[in-house]
Amino acid sequence: FFSTRVLFSALDEYLIALSNGASVNFLDFQLKRKGFQERFSVILDQLGIDVALDIVKNLSSVLPTFQVKILQSLHSKGALGMKTLKGILQYNTDFPENQYPLYMKTSKEFSSSCNQFRGREKSSYSDYVNRIVFRIVNESLRCLEEGVVETPQSVDVGAIYGLGFPRDLLGPCLLVDDMHPRVVIKILERHYEDTKRDGFLPSNLLTTMASNDTKFYQK
Asked: Phi and psi of 150, rounded to 5°?
């Protein structure tokens, strides 16, 4: 449940960026440069748009504002991902399994869905990537706070090996320790001010750590 919940918080932010006009291929490229191990578009298409919709429904209590309309639009157009050779991306039966070109054509169904639900938020690609990183960090800490996972080690290992979180960032909890909770709170508050999305409201755990000047991994 931890991996699914945190992954879908990141996918929410990813879909918001695309609905605001970000290029699928270029955003995927920037996320890969940051160190994410998988293309977000391919993750969704491999999972299946129909399956993703079921997961979003099950997560509605913790991710109530997920960008579900784009997925619903894709579903209504029969673009269910790799199983139909079209989802976010257009697939070709000649592609070797799990080997996809650096540039892939966005499906016309996805392009029309984004145009239908076009957002007005204009940001840089560095902001889009940064928001995805810190949505993952914040949602991971909420899971730890709520007892979904029991230890910071479980969060960091789960994020890196279960979500493909950038290894250079060490893991959500180690990243917070490295940057300091107060710095992370300032970053989250800036993103909240820019977007007004609740996913950037600092978790209670993070706020407590900043007040008490504590870390996850005490030396």
From this structure: -100, -25
Helix (DSSP H) and strand (DSSP E) numbers for the chain: 12, 0
Q: Write out pLDDT tens, residues 144-193.
A: 999 999 999 999 999 999 999 999 999 999 999 999 999 999 999 999 99
pLDDT digits (tens, 9 = 90+) for 46-79: 999 999 999 999 999 888 888 889 999 999 999 9
Q: Which of 102, 33, 115 is nearest to 69 (CA)?
A: 115
Q: State the angle between helix axes of 68-76 and 2-19 in degrees (0 to 180), rounded to the nearest 10.
A: 80
- In CATH, what class is 1-117? mainly alpha
**Does 121 have pLDDT greater than 80?**
no
**Boundaries of every domain in the chain:** 1-117, 125-212
The class that CATH gives domain 125-212 is mainly alpha
**What global pTM score does this model have?**
0.92
Residue 31 near residue 17, CB atoms below 8 Å: no
Whether the pLDDT of residue 103 is over 80: the answer is no
Residue 215's CB is within 10 A of a number of other CB atoms, namely 16
Task: Give the C-alpha separation, 19 to 15, whole Å.
Answer: 6
Q: For residue 138, what are its two tokens? A: 């914040």
Rounded Cα–Cα distance for residues 11 and 44 (Å): 8
